[in-house]
């Protein structure tokens, strides 16, 4: 689904001259060779006031970046998976404090890593069961094998607990994860993790439907997100961007050719933590849905109070108070976490311009979004550069967008 601007910046309280700084910033990233291409979108008061594209979606083939370019959004999948779970919550299928063992018995009798070496390590019993809220907030004690920070991460790699590359089923990978020790006691720490993939499996179990099918039928189709899915069909493959990393010369180096990509064919696992591809036109529809508190163009998937609950901080303080100095798609100071995305608590402590209550997340290929209910603002950045920590794109874009508000 393509998209066009719907309002002049001044009509929605933005300065056109100041908003033009976003274009200059994006063009400079491409002209300097840091990014192959990028797209930015700013929506305020329900109308798109800025949409810009720079550079190439596929450098080798000379395909320009366009508004209908399809991107790997990776962890920007997580908020949609969380919406899927909360739809079932509204149907009375579970309560947030329910132990997941009620539905996923494989997580019974969990133990927590307590030290030792790869060949000989110690564990202690978990003091309580993982709850559904723990999965939604990344406080379940789970981790990611990609962290490369401790013994538990290594066990994930050894046992192929990877929802992107494994050729096993979603249920099989979750079952393996449940045999491994937790990184921390449930509820004790915020650790970025496979929790949202486990949540996707929970959605499948509770609904009795394949998770990918549930997402397509219950969320993507009703929201009109026609170009969003877990793989790119052949007729749309020409619109899939290439994925890059920063090469030795500082310029983009290809890591995933769109024509040969694993995303170009159906995948064994529909990863709720990071499997979706999307366009800026599709994802802004999801942003509208959030800002409208669960409704889009007459279609309501969630009640207003449920979305407000999701956008509330569910941690004891900010992520710095509960988190560990490990990778995240967000900074830790002044930032809390709701049910599926980060929540701004204190812009001064976060040392970045923003608004308390603003919700955000990003993906591994440097994509990002945030929605600000107070300012009635949504911003999307789509590009394809891994890892997302290569450049401070999100913080830079945040300043450029907020400084353009004049009303």
UniProtKB/TrEMBL annotation:
It comes from the Bacteria. Residues 25-392 form the Beta-lactamase-related domain. InterPro entries: Beta-lactam-related, Beta-lactam/transpept-like, Diverse_Enzym_Activities. This is Beta-lactamase family protein. It comes from Roseomonas haemaphysalidis. The lineage of its organism: Bacteria, Pseudomonadati, Pseudomonadota, Alphaproteobacteria, Acetobacterales.
């Amino acid at each position: 689904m393509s998209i066009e601007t719907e309002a002049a910046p001044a009509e929605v309280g933005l300065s056109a001259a100041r908003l033009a700084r976003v274009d200059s910033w994006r063009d400079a990233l491409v002209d300097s060779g840091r990014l192959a291409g990028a797209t930015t979108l700013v929506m305020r008061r329900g109308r798109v006031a800025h949409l810009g594209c720079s550079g190439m979606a596929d450098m080798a083939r000379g395909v320009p970046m366009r508004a209908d370019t399809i991107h790997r959004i990776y962890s920007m999948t997580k908020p949609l998976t969380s919406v899927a779970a909360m739809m079932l919550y509204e149907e009375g299928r579970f309560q947030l404090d329910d132990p997941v063992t009620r539905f996923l018995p494989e997580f019974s009798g969990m133990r927590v890593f307590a030290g030792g070496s790869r060949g000989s390590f110690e564990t202690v019993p978990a003091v309580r069961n993982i709850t559904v809220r723990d999965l939604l907030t990344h406080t379940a004690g789970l981790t990611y094998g990609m962290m490369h920070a401790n013994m538990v991460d290594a066990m994930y790699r050894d046992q192929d607990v990877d929802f992107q590359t494994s050729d096993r089923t979603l249920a099989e990978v979750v079952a393996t994860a449940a045999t491994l020790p937790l990184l921390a006691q449930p509820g004790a720490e915020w650790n970025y993790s496979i929790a949202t993939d486990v949540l996707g499996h929970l959605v499948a179990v509770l609904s009795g439907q394949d998770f990918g099918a549930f997402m397509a039928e219950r969320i993507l189709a009703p929201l009109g997100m026609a170009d969003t899915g877990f793989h790119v069909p052949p007729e749309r493959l020409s619109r899939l961007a290439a994925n890059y990393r920063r090469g030795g010369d500082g310029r983009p180096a290809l890591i995933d050719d769109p024509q040969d990509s694993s995303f170009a064919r159906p995948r064994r696992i529909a990863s709720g933590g990071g499997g979706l591809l999307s366009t800026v036109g599709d994802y802004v529809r999801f942003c509208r849905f959030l800002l409208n508190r669960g409704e889009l163009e007459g279609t309501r998937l969630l009640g207003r109070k449920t979305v407000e609950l999701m956008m509330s901080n569910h941690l004891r303080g900010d992520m710095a108070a509960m988190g560990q100095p490990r990778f995240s798609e967000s900074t830790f100071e002044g930032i809390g976490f709701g049910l599926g995305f980060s929540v701004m608590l204190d812009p001064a402590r976060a040392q970045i311009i923003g608004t308390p209550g603003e919700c955000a997340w990003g993906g591994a290929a440097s994509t990002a979004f945030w929605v600000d209910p107070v300012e009635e603002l949504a911003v999307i950045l789509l590009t394809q550069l891994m890892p997302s920590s290569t450049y401070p794109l999100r913080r830079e874009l945040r300043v450029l967008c907020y400084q353009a508000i004049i009303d």
